[in-house]
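A student in our group prepared the protein record below, which I am reviewing. Thanks in advance; the entry in question is below.
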Amino acid sequence: MSSTNKNPLIRKLDHLFPLGGDELQILESACSRVVQFRADQDIVCDGDRPKACNLLLEGFVCRYKLTAEGKRQIMSFQFPGDIFDAQSLILEEMDHSISAITPCKVALIPHETMLEITETYPRIARALWKDTLVDAAVFREWMTSIGRRSSYQRIAHLMCEVLVRLDVVGLAHGHTIEWPFTQTEIGDALGLSNVHVNRTLQQLRKAGLITLANSSLAIHHWDGLKDAGQFDGRYLHLRPARSPAGMEGGAPQQMQA
């Protein structure tokens, strides 16, 4: 299987917990049923009792909850290679919703299949467990941002994280990544008003750190953006020996200078 055609989950596991050829084939064959969702469509709703885990193949999704007043808190952005509702395998009822941000392609892995795989192949179970633990580490970092970082730091940190995570699955093009998030979505994720988001994006542009246009983010100075966001990529737990192409310790090599 060529690297350009790899299932994004397999590409991600290359950097988290590399598996053998037979194990990779088992995961690949489990993703035979694929469905598509339109932008802004709920994929899973709070209170649902799913019968399958969802692996994101293409597109961007978010986890969110609504308050009684209808206010939305986005708790994570999920990218290709993420099994974004793996907890449904153990926790029978969803306690939050998951919505497509862009048009998405999703592979459905029935719970029965997932249970059989994890019980038969312990290394796959460990790999998926590590992936779930990293997901929890990302959530902790988001909580730190919301609770203790300024709006400037929060958005800079988010940009750094998205770049690294997309690079892992081969979706970073040099210093440039897709950035489909609206100002409202950024605000709902980071606890900021649209005014704060807009002002902060302008500050990052004026500092010469980024260009953001046409749903595309170009990062011009990695060290500057990393410092602005207090970004330390260790919480993503990527294996140093298998860092993403062009990355060193979670940072693009070409941005080190």
In short: Residues 1-144 form a domain with the Jelly Rolls fold (CATH 2.60.120.10). The longest strand covers residues 52-58.
